[in-house]
Amino acid sequence: MTGYEIRGLSISNYRDQSVLLDDVFGADGVATGTMVAMNAEKIVIAETDIDLRDSIEKADYRYADGVSVVLAVRRRHGVRLARIAGADLWQSMMRRAAQQNTPVFLLGGRPPVSLEVERRLRVDWGVHVVGRRHGYFAESERGDIMREIRDSGAQIVAVALGSPKQEIFMQECHRRHPAALYIGVGGSFDVVSG
Ligand code: UDP
């Protein structure tokens, strides 16, 4: 996948979200790695936040989520990237997970939002949710949560902790438990539960 560089960070050019999903799931339907939605705010924060920068650089999939990223690549490289909205991408991924019966763990959001997202995914979408934690936990609980994710057997972990927390969490959890796909979903849980 060709990467286009903006402020030292490479962004991939996917024609649309289904091409990205095909790339992620591969021929065998098994996805691993970390996925980061790239927008202008994240790129600016990553100039000074070394942990965020490192998490973005190590991510397996970086796609253009923000219009300003699309415009910046056009100005700099003369290439028109497709904009892939993170919330849509996550919902498509959940549909695919439901079809394949892929085990999913949901991390993040306020407690009632987390509950409602799980209910909707299970009942309305038929997603096999194997674990859930809301996103307001103490630093000291991080290790336990990562173990809980591993022990749940989740193959897809959706992480809604806001940026840069979610990117850093995903990278660390992926390093400890590489046999899963981690997708940062920002405010998507609020959209689905609303
Ligand atoms: N969030 C969370 N824990 C936190 C901070 C945020 O679970 O410590 C959740 C928040 O409830 C929301 C999501 O992360 O559902 C995205 O938060 P925000 O909109 O602040 O982040 P952004 O999408 O702007 O990066």
Automatic annotation (TrEMBL):
<keyword id="KW-0808">Transferase</keyword>
<protein>
    <submittedName>
        <fullName>WecB/TagA/CpsF family glycosyltransferase</fullName>
    </submittedName>
</protein>
<dbReference type="GO" id="GO:0016758">
    <property type="term" value="F:hexosyltransferase activity"/>
</dbReference>
<keyword id="KW-0328">Glycosyltransferase</keyword>
